[in-house]
Design a protein that fits this description.
The strands form 2 sheets. Strands 8-7-6-9-10-11-12 form a 7-stranded parallel β-sheet. A 5-stranded parallel β-sheet has the order 2-1-3-4-5. It has 2 domains: about 5-100 and about 290-314, Rossmann fold (3-Layer(aba) Sandwich), CATH 3.40.50; about 100-285, 3-Layer(aba) Sandwich (Rossmann fold). Helix content is about 30%, strand content about 15%. It is built from 11 helices and 12 strands. It has helices at about 20-25, 40-45, 60, 85-90, 100-115, 120-130, 160-170, 195-200, 220, 240-250, 290-314; strands spanning about 5, 25-30, 50, 70-75, 90-95, 150-155, 175-180, 190, 200-205, 230-235, 255-260, 280-285. Helix 5 (about 100-115) packs across helix 7. Helix 9 links the parallel strand 9 and strand 10. The longest helix has 22 residues, at about 290-314. The chain has about 325 residues and is α/β, with parallel strands linked by helices.
């Protein structure tokens, strides 16, 4: 049996990965680099299989797609899919996880090191010619924070949080694990978030965005952190009140912050964290997950999920 399928936003996987594990399956494919919301129904009409990374599918779409049997989300989260409506219509939805663990942990670790070593400040000094004008051979106004012996608070101790913790322990840091707001976890080694924030030299976020974690780090919780503390976010932009973070950094109430994620991506409407005048802030364009190795693992997992679905149809 040959199914018909559509890839709605193949460009999100990159041009340097091998899609043959997907395209070699017995599916007649239509492939689009990107799909605007207004084009979704026309492109998915008559298709039994849809692959999507960021294109949302809701009940109002399902009503017009009676042939749809399977949705493969080429990402970890399924928030772009109306899962309840899909289940009610018998549409199978799969996602993938774990493909980017090493890539994301490496990026989060690199952001921590960059902040601890004051690289944004030092790069600015170079660009401003301050080293060239120094009366001594070096600059000592922005000394690095030595991380050995410091405390890292990991918020979200799944595979990503564990990978980050392992790297931190490798350079002599002490790791604390925070209880995530709204999580049913009963692990005895978790400490309350507020207590952890007060103790942490570095906070790294690795938890999902839910109603309970939306703006989890607001102005009040940011104020609990020591003034020298660093904040790393490679999870979701909505976990942090971005305006409150920008204000805290400008006021010197936080040592530094780095984020790979924002509430709107791409940030076409602007964002408080895009102000170049904010000190000791690094913003990267949601690329922590995107090593070629991670993206190829993702493709292989998507293909495996779809292959299992096809086998059940035979």
């Amino acid at each position: 049996m040959k199914l018909t399928g559509v890839m709605l936003d193949a460009d999100t996987l990159g041009a340097d990965v091998d899609l043959s594990p997907i395209t070699n399956l017995p599916v007649e494919w239509a492939k689009y680099g990107v799909t605007a919301p207004d084009d979704l129904l026309a492109r998915a009409e008559g298709k039994s299989v849809v692959l999507t990374n960021k294109v949302c599918l809701r009940e109002e779409h399902f009503r017009h797609l009676p042939d749809l049997k399977y949705i493969g989300v080429t990402a970890t989260g399924t928030n772009i899919i109306d899962m309840e409506a899909a289940a009610a219509r018998g549409i199978i939805v799969t996602n993938v996880s774990g493909y980017g663990t090493q890539s994301v942990a490496q990026h989060a670790f690199a952001l921590m090191l960059a902040l601890a070593n004051r690289l944004p400040f030092l790069q600015q000094q170079m660009q401003n010619g301050q080293w060239q004008q120094s009366p001594i051979f070096c600059r000592l106004d922005y000394p690095p924070m030595e991380l050995a012996g410091r405390t890292l608070l990991v918020v979200g101790y799944g595979v990503l949080g564990q990978a980050m913790a392992k790297l931190a322990e490798g350079i002599g840091m002490t790791v604390l694990k925070a209880a995530v707001p709204g999580s049913p976890s009963s692990h005895s080694d978790r400490i309350e978030l507020e207590e952890g924030l007060r103790q942490a030299d570095v906070v790294s976020l690795h938890c999902p965005l839910t109603d309970a974690t939306l703006n989890m780090l607001d102005a009040a919780r940011l104020a609990m952190m020591p003034k020298h503390a660093l904040l790393i976010n490679t999870a979701r932009g909505g976990l942090i009140d971005e305006q409150a973070l920008a204000d805290a950094l400008r006021a010197g109430e936080l040592g530094g912050a780095a984020t790979d994620v924002l509430t709107q991506e791409p940030p076409v409407d602007g964002n408080p964290l895009l102000d170049n005048a904010i000190p000791n802030l690094i913003v990267t364009p949601h690329c922590a997950w995107a090593s070629p190795e991670a993206r190829q693992r993702l493709v292989n997992m998507v293909a495996d999920n779809l292959h299992k679905f096809i086998e059940k149809q035979l």
